[in-house]
Design a protein that fits this description.
The protein is about 35% helix and about 20% strand. With about 350 residues, it is α+β, with helices and mostly antiparallel strands. The protein has three domains: about 100 residues, Succinyl-CoA synthetase domains (Rossmann fold, 3-Layer(aba) Sandwich), CATH 3.40.50.261; about 70 residues, ATP-grasp fold, A domain (Dna Ligase, domain 1, 2-Layer Sandwich), CATH 3.30.1490.20; about 110 residues, ATP-grasp fold, B domain (D-amino Acid Aminotransferase, Chain A, domain 1, 2-Layer Sandwich). Helix 1 runs parallel beside helix 2 and helix 9 packs across helix 10.
C-alpha cells in the first residue's frame, strides 16, 4: 500500500529499494536520509539494503521500523555495525532526524561565531568594581551612563555640580556585590541635601572596605534586561539574556546559549523570551532597539571568549530604549589563581 502524502513511498519494498535510497541521497539538496519500513523479513532485509546503500551514500542514514522485538534486536545490532541507527517507532525516528538537524544547525552557527571571534586578550585586566567593569564594557562598545568616581565627599560634591540631575549615588566597593541590599544605591538625587543624605547612608554601611563613591547620571525610561556570561567547568562559557533587570530572578524568563554566539543566535535568544513582546512596545510604549541588544550580546560573547580569566559577568540591568542600550550596573568575577588561563 502506498501513502501518497509521504515524501517518497515505494509501496511494498522491492529489489531496487536500496537504489531508491542512493538516488535520493545523490540530490545535493539532501543532507540525510530517513527510511521507515515494517519488519517483514520476507519482503525486505534492511541489513542487506543498508549495506548496499552505505557503499554509495555518505550522508547520515537513519532507519525506523516496527515489528517483533526478537527480530528487531538482530537488525539493530547489525545496522549499528554499519553506522546506521535503528529506531523502533516512526516517532522516535522522526525525533532523531530532528535532533540531527538541530545539532548540525548549532555546529554551523558555532563555526560562524568562532570565525568572527577576536583573538584571546593577554592584557592584564583589573575590572573588579563597577567602574572598572564599565570601562571594559565601553571598550567592547557597550555604552554606560556618564559617571564620576569620587574618593572623598568633597570630590562627590564637586562631581555633583558637573552632572545632569537627577543622579544616582552608589557605593563603589568590589567587596559589595549587591549594593541595593545594603543601602548602597540612591536614585533621583537632585540637590546637595539629598546628596549628603545619600553619602551619609553609604558611609554607614558596615564592613565597607573602600571609601569611594560612584555618581552617575540617570538613564531614560525603557525595558530592563539582564545580560550575562558564566564559565562553567563542564560546558565552558555560556551567554544569558533575560527580562526583568533586578526582578529577573523572580520572573525567570531567560534564554541561554553556549559561547561564542552568532547574530542569529542572539536574535533567537530574544525571541525565546516569553515577554519578548515588551521589546516591541507595550501599551503605547515605543519599541526598543532590538539590534542594539543583539550587538550587546555579541559584545559579551566576544568579551568572555577573549578573556579566559573572566569567570562571570552580570549586566543588570541593561536598559533598552528606542535609542539603544545602556549598562546601568555591571559585576565581573575573575580567576585570580596564577598560572591558570
Amino acid at each position: 500500500m502506498t501513502y501518497l502524502r509521504n515524501p517518497i513511498d515505494t509501496g511494498r519494498p522491492s529489489a531496487v529499494f536500496a537504489d531508491v535510497m542512493v538516488h535520493v541521497a545523490r540530490d545535493p539538496a539532501i543532507d540525510a536520509v530517513l527510511t521507515f519500513a515494517l519488519d517483514e523479513p520476507a519482503a525486505l532485509d534492511p541489513v542487506a539494503v543498508f549495506k548496499r546503500a552505505r557503499e554509495e551514500i555518505d550522508v547520515p542514514l537513519l532507519f525506523g521500523t516496527l515489528g517483533e522485538p526478537a527480530s528487531l534486536e538482530r537488525v539493530e545490532a547489525a545496522l549499528e555495525a554499519l553506522r546506521t541507527p535503528a529506531f523502533l517507532s516512526p516517532e522516535r525516528a522522526a525525533t532523531a532526524a530532528w535532533a540531527l538537524s538541530e545539532d548540525a544547525r548549532a555546529r554551523h552557527r558555532r563555526r560562524v561565531a568562532k570565525a568572527a571571534m577576536p583573538l584571546e586578550s593577554r592584557a592584564t585586566v583589573d575590572a573588579r568594581d563597577e567602574a572598572a567593569a564599565k570601562r571594559l564594557l565601553n571598550q567592547y562598545g557597550i555604552r554606560t551612563p556618564t559617571h564620576v568616581v569620587c574618593r572623598t565627599r568633597e570630590e562627590a560634591v564637586g562631581a555633583f555640580e558637573t552632572l545632569q540631575k537627577p543622579i544616582v549615588v552608589k557605593v563603589l566597593d568590589e567587596a559589595i556585590a549587591h549594593k541595593t541590599e545594603v543601602g548602597g544605591v540612591h536614585l533621583g538625587v537632585s540637590d546637595i541635601e539629598q546628596l549628603n543624605r545619600a553619602l551619609d547612608q553609604i558611609d554607614s554601611i558596615p564592613d565597607r572596605r573602600s571609601p569611594r563613591y560612584l555618581l552617575e547620571e540617570m538613564a531614560p525610561r525603557g525595558v530592563d534586561l539582564i545580560v550575562g556570561a558564566k564559565r562553567d567547568a563542564s560546558f565552558g562559557a555560556t551567554i544569558l539574556v533575560g527580562l526583568g533587570g533586578t526582578e529577573a530572578e523572580a520572573l525567570n524568563d531567560v534564554s541561554i546559549r553556549l559561547a561564542p554566539i552568532s547574530r542569529a543566535d542572539a536574535l533567537e535568544m530574544l525571541n525565546d523570551l516569553r515577554g519578548s513582546g515588551l521589546l516591541e512596545g507595550w501599551r503605547g510604549a515605543p519599541a526598543v532597539d532590538r539590534d542594539a541588544i543583539v550587538t550587546a550580546l555579541l559584545a559579551v560573547s566576544n568579551m568572555v571568549s577573549a578573556h579566559s580569566k573572566l569567570l562571570e559577568l552580570d549586566i543588570n540591568p541593561l536598559r533598552a530604549t528606542p535609542e539603544g542600550v545602556l549598562a546601568l550596573d555591571a559585576l565581573m568575577i575573575w580567576n585570580t589563581l596564577s598560572g591558570e588561563s
